[in-house]
Specification:
Aminopeptidase; globular
Length: 206
C-alpha cells in the first residue's frame, strides 16, 4: 500500500513563514533538560496564566520522558536552529485509552503528541514546521501490520484547540470529560511532506 503524500507541499504554500535557513530535528538528550525547561517556561510565560495552567500536564509529560525511547524511536524530538533549541515535542506510540477508549485508542495505529512547545519567534511558525516533521515521520514508519494513520493530541484549552485547528491543520474528532474538565480530542491524518528536507534535516526512519 503506497504511503499517503500531500498532493502539494504545504511548505511551498506557506513559504512566507520560513526562510532558507536549515533547521535540524534531533532526539533529546539528558543534558538538554535545562535548556528545554527554560524554553517551555518562556513559552508558558508568553501565553499567560490561564493557558499555562492548562499546559502544566504537557510540561511534565515532556520533561518526564525527555531522553526515553519506545521500540527504538525517541519519545522527544527537538527542533534546532544553529544548534540552539527552538522547539520540543513529546510523541508517544498510541493515543491514551482514557481519551479514545480501550479499543479505539490505537485502532487504526496512531502517534500521540503529549506535548509541543516552541520558542516565541515573531514571523516564524515553528510549531507548524515541527508538526510537519512529525506528520512526515509518522507516515514513513515501517508497517508491521497497519501503517500509522493518525497524529493525535488532547487539550482542555480553547485557545490551544483553536490554534491547533487553524494553524496546524488538526480537527476535533470528539470530546470527553476528565477531572471535571472538557478535553478536546484532536487528530490529523499523517502524510509525507514533500520539500520538508529543504528546511529540516533529521535522522532517517530505520
Amino acid at each position: 500500500m503506497p504511503r499517503p503524500t500531500l498532493r502539494s507541499s504545504p511548505i511551498a504554500a506557506a513559504s512566507r513563514i520560513l526562510t532558507t535557513t536549515q533547521y535540524e530535528v534531533r532526539p533529546a538528550r539528558a543534558d538538554d533538560r535545562p535548556t528545554v525547561t527554560e524554553l517551555i517556561d518562556t513559552r508558558l510565560d508568553a501565553l499567560g496564566r490561564p493557558v499555562a495552567i492548562d499546559l502544566k500536564v504537557s510540561r511534565a509529560a515532556l520533561l518526564n520522558c525527555l531522553w526515553e525511547e519506545a521500540s527504538g524511536e525517541p519519545l522527544v524530538w527537538l527542533l534546532c536552529k544553529d544548534t540552539k533549541i527552538v522547539g520540543a515535542a513529546a510523541v508517544l506510540p498510541g493515543a491514551p485509552s482514557w481519551a479514545w477508549g480501550p479499543i479505539q485508542h490505537n485502532t487504526p495505529p496512531s502517534r500521540y503528541i503529549a506535548a509541543l512547545f516552541t520558542r516565541p519567534t515573531p514571523g516564524v511558525r515553528l510549531a507548524r514546521l515541527l508538526t510537519w516533521f512529525l506528520l512526515d515521520r509518522a507516515a514513513r514508519q515501517p508497517a508491521e501490520d497497519d501503517r500509522v494513520q493518525w497524529l493525535r493530541a488532547t487539550t482542555s484549552s480553547d485557545q490551544v484547540m483553536h490554534y491547533a485547528c487553524a494553524e496546524l491543520g488538526f480537527s476535533v474528532s470528539d470530546g470527553v470529560r476528565r477531572g471535571g474538565r472538557h478535553i478536546y480530542l484532536l487528530q490529523h491524518a499523517v502524510r509525507e511532506v514533500p520539500d520538508l528536507g529543504r528546511y529540516v534535516s533529521a535522522p532517517r526512519v530505520a
